[in-house]
Amino acid sequence: MKPKLLVIGGRPTFQKKALHFFQPGFQVSTAASGREALPLLGNGQPAMVLLGADLPGGGSLEFLRELQQNFPRAKAILFSAFQDMNTTIQAMKLGAYDYVLEDIDLKELDQKIQKAVRILNLNEKIPPLKEPESFPLPSFTLIGQSKAMRELYKFIGLISNTTASVGIRGETGTGKKLVAQVIHQNSPNREGPLVTVDCTTIVETLSESTLYGHEKGSFTGAVESHRGLFEMAAEGTIFLDEIADLPLSMQGKLLRFLQDKEYQRIGGTSQKKSNARIVVATNRDLYQAITQGKFRKDLYYRLKVLTIYIPPLRERREDIPLLIQHFLHKINREHHTRVLKIEDRAVQLLIHYDWPGNVREMENLLTLACILGKEEVILEETVKEILHRSQRLPYDRPHLSSLGEAEEEILKRALRTTQGNLTQAAKLLKISRPTLRTKMQKYRLSLG
Question: φ, ψ for residue 444 (rounded to 5)?
Answer without folding.
Answer: 55, 45
